[in-house]
Amino acid sequence: xxxxxxxxxxxxxxxxxxxxxxxxxxxxxxxxxxxxxxxxxxxxxxxxxxxxxxxxxxxxxxxxxxxxxxxxxxxxxxxxxxxxxxxxxxxxxxxxxxxxxx
Length: 102
Description:
Elements: H1 3-6, E1 15-16, H2 17-23, E2 28-36, E3 44-53, H3 56-60, E4 74-77, H4 94-101
Antiparallel strand pairs: 1-3, 2-3, 2-4
């Protein structure tokens, strides 16, 4: 293992989502120590950035083997999604819903 592989990623100070987007525009960011606006809300109040890059894998790479140090993390994109969102292909009508409920 060379020296570069032994380096532990350094987390930024806590940043607001607006600051993260300004600092890492149109990139994937790996976030730890996430503080939410409200409990169970997807909206991020503050978080520390431990990785970033043009792809999901590049953002995750710095903490790939650090699951003990960072057991909870999230990867988010700071730009606007240009691809269509994946939608479920299953459509449940009223009749099927009644079957599921019984």
